[in-house]
Amino acid sequence: MTEWITTIVEQMGYWAIALLMLLENVFPPIPSEVIMPLAGYTAANGGLNIMLVIMSGTIGTVNGAAFWWWLASKCGELRLKKLADRHGRWLTLSASDIDKIDDWFDRHGSWAIPVAHVIPGLRTLISIPAGLFGTTFPRFIILTISGSAVWTSVLAGAGYFLGRQFSAVDHYLGPAGLAIMAAVLLYYLYRVITFKPSAGNA
């Protein structure tokens, strides 16, 4: 997996980094924990500028997060609850779960956005309650940038400063990325099997 990512980054440069990070946030096919260290390593070899690598990764992340914010804000809480009532098992989300998310976001709110960007899976999900429950778009973008810029800097910096030693680390990145994706899939299947609808909608 890491070889073709490296090839795409080398051929398409910053556009590839931004696109891969956007896709990682819209529907996570490849974890950022794989993409950004590889991009940083490419920069260490002189193929790219490390600051532009970080900027490209951040831009892709922000655009992916903005898509989910926009979709959630357009859908609205009532429509999402109806969708949960109808397809709740496969969404692993019930109307009562949405109420809980609403209450939680009211208490902890927007500051969860930058923190979520260091946690696989949550960096996508956090955009949904933000769009549903009233975080303004400018505030959402600022907080998303602050969280994603730090995280992409750490990951790209790791690949950059490891330099030649990165080849040893790369041996473990492929299996680690696959393990993360497998864990996400298993968790989803667990939620589907153990899903319990809201009492009023059962």
From TrEMBL:
Name of the protein in its database record: DedA family protein
Domain of life assignment: Bacteria
Localization terms from the record: Cell membrane
Keyword entries, A-Z: Cell membrane, Membrane, Transmembrane, Transmembrane helix
Membrane topology: Multi-pass membrane protein
Domain VTT: 30-160
Signal peptide extent: none
InterPro entries named among the record's database cross-references: DedA_domain, VTT_dom
Classification via Pfam families: VTT_dom
TM segment ranges: 12-30, 50-72, 140-160, 172-190
